[in-house]
Specification:
With 298 residues, the chain is mainly β. It is 2% helix and 51% strand. The chain is built from one helix and 26 strands. The longest helix is centred in the last third of the chain and has 6 residues. The N and C termini lie far apart (40 Å). 46% of the residues are buried.
Amino acid sequence: MTLRCVLQARSALGEGALWSASERCLYWIDQMRPEIHRFDPSTGRDTKFDIALPEQLGALVPRAGGGFLLAGSDGISVIDAGFSRRAPLVNPIADRPRASFNDAKVNRDGRLFAGTTDRLESDKIGQLFSLGDDKQPRLVADGFICSNGPSFSPDGRRLYHTRSHDREIWVYEVVDDGTLRHGEVFARIAADEGIPDGSTVDAEGHLWSTHWDGARITRYRPDGSVERVVQTPCRTPTSCAFGGDDLGTLYVTSASITMIDGQWIFMDEAGFAAAPTAGGLFAFEPGVKGLQEPGFHG
């Protein structure tokens, strides 16, 4: 099973893959530049939106009524469908200058789950919040450096949450009020397999998890056992999302950036000459279909 590079994006830290069924396009972000993009697989055209953004991005998720929510270093904001304006919504991390929102997803009930990370990637100040119709953020988990990959089972009753630096994926039962209970370790990732990053769930209820610095994507059965491992041509795959007309294509973002001694090092021209698809957007057909990501109801 071979991944093909569909866009040599040269992103610093590509993230937040999100398929739009109505537009038949894939949205993705460059977390560190920061930028929001839309890729049209039918033409190969990639569009970067000209809109003021915070210093660091985390995730872009749809709103049920149109437009998007953006999670980033200045909290959670609302972007209109035409990407002409952005307005603040909530910012529960305003008193934490080293924190930034990272990965985020909306569950089957239209509630947002958004996690944060320590921007220096060293201290356990990461948190996971849920946000419902009342737009009041609720802290539902903490005690980790970087929150990644909130993903939901097809029935919406389970949340998979990645504690990247602990190399653990946890699973929780989702309560109707947006809280979590019965959390336990779902999978542990060995040091030589990289760091678990973004994820998604397919229509069969299996979890797909990307491995930063591991050059692979793992598909886990609902019991946590490994169903398959897919090798990637990029060293640092970062997020994945099902797309295409039948949701049968898995799109994968990647990064070209590297952290050394607490500082992000951007790839130079010599680096891209040696690894031209680093930071690229990839795709393959895994033989299973995905689920359309729901929109935020608030």
